[in-house]
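Our platform keeps sequence and structure together, in a single record for each protein. Such a record has a labelled line for the sequence and another for the backbone structure tokens. Nothing more is needed to write down the fold, since each code stands for a local backbone conformation. For reference, a complete record is included directly beneath this paragraph:
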Amino acid sequence: MIKAISAGAAVVGFVILIVAVVVGWVVAPNLIENMVEKETQLQNGTDIYEKWVNIPVPIYLKFYLWNVTNYEDYQNNKDWSAKPNISEIGPYIYKENRTKYEIRSNPDDDTVTYRQKITYTFVPEMSVGPDTDVVNIINVPLFSVAAVLATKNLIITPLVLQLLLGPLSRERLVKMDVPVRDVIFGWRLNLIYDIIASVGTELGMHFPPEMQDGKFGFYLNRNNTNADGLWEVYSGVRDSSKFSIIKTIEGESRLDDWWDDECAMINGTDGTMFPPFVEKDTTLFAYIPEICRSVWLRYTEKTEYEGIPGYRFRIPNELFTSPHIHPPNWCFCMPVKPPLNQDCDFTGGGRIFSCKSDAPIIISKPHFLDAQEDIYTQMDGLKPEKAKHDTFIDVEPITGFPLRAQKRLQIGVELQTLSTFGAPWNTINHVFFPAIWADEEAALDDKLVDEIKTKLIKPLRLVTIGKWSAVGVGIFVTVVGSTYFSYLMWFKK
């Protein structure tokens, strides 16, 4: 009788072990995967759909502006021997609200089309001061117009360039005492620009979207508007691996701003959500409308946010590496019209001239982080630090839901030596001059943290505890039963 009990215990223990392995490593993961796939669908009625329509994650846009402190010495020195001295002013923080509308489902294509209105509301209590603070900033519209005119090779170009800095225009190389909110959302340009814009339109010239309607601002016409047009993204109903990935913008799957299909493709999501089941070897892509290109992020380390485990992805250095070093970047080296500098052999910034109607606008990491030394030593005041100026996103790997993100990008102007147009244009040093950088910060609030823990993390932990406990019990019962049975059969015999 005892032999039968011990043998039965060994068999029961082995069965428990097999069932625990099958349930814990096969059945439960499949159930969780099916549950996640069912929830990550842009269909009315799913939990993720409501979060997609009205992003519940608090998003703050922090602006830092570069104030030129030695502007008199810098712009009045005819041989440009004075090194520019700049200081960072900020942050000036705006709450960002995103609302999607005109949402239409396209089941045949497994896509959803929509428009999105983004609203920015100033948050004075979080900012360094009121957004009426003034700043002396490098005159981006002046250099933009000068560069665009210079490439047209018109007879009147030298005269117009001189007029831009003449007593009638009263423009200077450094724009003085501009309120912070005007730098961001637009200040009124003088009459000379209106004349140039009118004449330029007749001659087929265009100016960047930041310079329209007689105004200039880095976020001009982007507040409380649908600035980015009609988007079409995959719903994830048929294929969860495509969830929220952009298919087209305004009906186009590629951008006219780049000459190569690889660079011109609109890759990835808008950065607020990603497809589920993210692995360490996954490359995340996010399209950024302001710079007319997609950026990619790679896994760097495990992380944790409020008790939720995640993977951290960062923008790699290759994004702004010279194409001579990183050949895939050649397609971002668009032909620059003379007399502008055509050399793309620099690391630490990216030209987006073609995205800005040939205006010499550049993007980089803030403070020219990871740039070659001669770029960030061209002026005093830059202090690049990885912890403060790098871009990263922490993702919960099973759902692909972002836990925390810091998108940090700097916009500036590439000062060009225009050798055939007289002083001061023919003596300006070739300099990458920063104007403003933004830190778009988002992190789950307590409500969303609790929701993810309740719906995902706690069940996963229960499954983990349960399967390993069952395995332990199975092994224990099997070992005890078989050991005692062996003892009765052999040793007692």
In short: The chain has a mean pLDDT of 83. The chain has eleven helices and 18 strands. The radius of gyration is 29 Å.
